[in-house]
């Protein structure tokens, strides 16, 4: 059986988003029929072909000043020449995203929204989280998956006086694993669905 490739491209200045990225990869690997490629943005130049042939790309960045980090932004801008100008090479791939910050909110939503716009510019299909509301009632807790309440992607919070050995906490890493697994399952459905109904056929039926 051909295994579908799912790439995870991320930047992490101090290692916290790196822990989240590893958790996303572990979630992807829970699903049969896919393989995960974990890549930091500084290595992308040697891996454009891998990204172009992947069925899904999951983006990860810390939230710095309420936005993606500068190295992640540089990667985003590099795709203009390396991907878009070469023929819209990421069109119809699955996309998703994750981010870590120091505060519980920390304006992480802004980072995820930047990633959504980026994916849309590439003609990709964004996959969010489908977890129910958590940590928002008298019976909820910090141990809940999606304790920070994001749906656009996976959010994590790392205390700024803790290293990546202990932060982000287990609940945020479980949320990241969940996202990885969901993206892998969605990718398989999408790839097999596209095989059953090729795009040209769908357009003809619409006409
Ligand atoms: C330049 C800079 C800007 C930051 N801006 C934010 C921010 O806007 N919101 C926030 O909650 N934390 C902010 N932080 C804290 C980081 O998001 C936090 O330390 C995170 O865990 C870093 O992830 P990393 O280890 O993957 O780099 C900032 C940190 C730095 C270095």
From TrEMBL:
SUPFAM superfamilies: Flavoproteins. One of its GO terms (molecular function) is electron transfer activity. It comes from the Bacteria. Its cofactor is FMN. Keywords: Flavoprotein, FMN. The keyword Transcription regulation does not apply. GO terms for cellular component: membrane. Residues 6-156 form the Flavodoxin-like domain. The keyword Ion transport does not apply. InterPro entries: Flavodoxin/NO_synth (IPR008254), Flavodoxin_CS (IPR001226), Flavoprotein-like_sf (IPR029039), FMN_Rdtase-like_dom (IPR005025). This is NADPH-dependent FMN reductase.
């Amino acid at each position: 059986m051909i295994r579908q490739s799912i790439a995870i491209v991320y930047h992490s200045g101090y290692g916290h988003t790196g822990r989240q990225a590893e958790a996303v990869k572990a979630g992807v690997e829970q699903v049969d029929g896919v393989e995960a490629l974990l890549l930091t943005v500084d290595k992308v130049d040697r891996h454009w072909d891998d990204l172009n042939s992947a069925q899904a790309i999951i983006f990860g960045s810390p939230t710095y000043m309420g936005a993606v980090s500068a190295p992640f932004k540089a990667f985003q801008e590099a795709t203009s020449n390396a991907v878009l100008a070469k023929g819209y090479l990421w069109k119809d791939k699955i996309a998703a995203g994750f981010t870590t910050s120091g505060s519980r909110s920390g304006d992480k939503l802004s980072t995820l929204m930047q990633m959504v716009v980026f994916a849309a510019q590439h003609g990709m299909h964004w996959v969010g989280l489908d977890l129910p509301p958590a940590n928002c009632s008298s019976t909820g807790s910090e141990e809940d998956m999606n304790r920070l309440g994001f749906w656009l992607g996976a959010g994590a919070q790392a205390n700024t006086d803790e290293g990546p050995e202990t932060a982000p906490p287990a609940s945020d890493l479980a949320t990241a694993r969940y996202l990885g697994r969901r993206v892998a399952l969605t990718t398989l459905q999408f790839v097999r669905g596209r095989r059953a109904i090729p795009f040209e056929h769908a357009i003809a039926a619409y006409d």
